[in-house]
Amino acid sequence: MKIVILGAGGRLGAALMREYREKYDLAGFDHARLDLANLDDARAKLRGMNFDALINAAAFTNVDACETERDRAFLINAEAPGILAEICNEKDARLIHFSTDYVFDGEKRAPYTENDQANPISAYGESKLAGEKLVLAAGDRHLVVRVSWVFGPDRPSFVDAMIKRAQKEEKVDAISDKFSTPTYTHDVANMLPQFFERDVAGGILHFANAGKCSWREYAQWALDCCRDAGIPLKGTTVGALQLSEMTNWVARRPVYSVLSTAKYAEVTGRASRAWREAVADYITRFYSKK
Ligand SMILES: NC(=O)c1ccc[n+]([C@@H]2O[C@H](COP(=O)([O-])OP(=O)(O)OC[C@H]3O[C@@H](n4cnc5c(N)ncnc54)[C@H](OP(=O)(O)O)[C@@H]3O)[C@@H](O)[C@H]2O)c1
């Protein structure tokens, strides 16, 4: 199978490159090699290649910057994925496009399913939802995979920032009244081939590790895992911050954006593993060695 990955330098894209290198005929483009803001160039580069699946892990992911650079957000997160889907149609290839829990407004208090109405409350969420719609309108084989709180070894995320702070300082705080679920890039890499190796139906799919937590619980569990792995820390208890204290945020963020993985389990016959297990695995594999 020939696979092309966009966003190959990002947290998720780099993980997919690393994990698929041995298994597939793989090509990847990072931001420097293919700029989705330059649609003519992106078109020319991709039209000149052959592939069975195109995985788009590139996006304008800075949620606050999207608020002030709205046009750029819509160009990269919406218009470009629509063009990618059309290029895939020309080649009879499948587009796997990543999206986000931020398409929801966060008013629900039970996991969001693929049938729940999206209602973004930020320019980032709006642009990602617009991208989903363009991809799905282009063809029914294309797959939109919504993920949440992505973490992994290829680019630092929230959990790494918390561990780094706890290594330097005794005081570590995290928000205790915002809820979602971490998603380990390694687990995304494991689950995705079930969707591009077989000719399964396209549409929207939610994927995250199982369960739900606040940022404070997530950080506390990471520090607990570090302690168990013998990683020295100055801070061991995560204090609680409130969302209302985040006065420097530009964009609004959903308070609750847990993604239901029931459809994933139904389609594949497999359940995603619990977030605590995934975080523990990550820390054991990538921190114990540092
Ligand atoms: N991170 C999360 O917690 C999270 C949560 C929900 C959904 N998602 C979604 O998951 C996907 C992967 O995100 P991630 O966590 O891997 O984020 P990431 O580390 O920010 O990766 C995004 C990649 O896209 C690249 N990029 C930005 N603008 C581009 C452009 N104009 N042309 C080409 N490439 C461009 C970035 O390159 P530069 O850094 O060089 O600009 C970066 O390598 C995205 O669709 C995102 O919306 C992420």
Features:
binds NADP nicotinamide-adenine-dinucleotide phosphate, single chain, six-stranded parallel sheet
Structure, described:
There is one protein chain. Helices cover 41% and strands 16% of the residues. By secondary structure, it is α/β, with parallel strands linked by helices. A 6-stranded parallel sheet has the order 2-1-3-4-5-10, sandwiched between helices. Helix 1 crosses helix 7 (185-191), helix 4 runs parallel beside helix 5 (123-138) and helix 6 (158-168) crosses helix 9 (215-228). The longest helix has 22 residues, at 70-91. It is globular and about 55 Å long. It starts with a strand and ends with a helix. The mean pLDDT is 96. The structure holds NADP nicotinamide-adenine-dinucleotide phosphate (NAP). NADP nicotinamide-adenine-dinucleotide phosphate binds at residues 7, 9-13, 31, 34-37, 57-61, 76, 98, 100-101, 128, 147-150, 155. NADP nicotinamide-adenine-dinucleotide phosphate (NAP) binds next to helix 1 and strand 4.
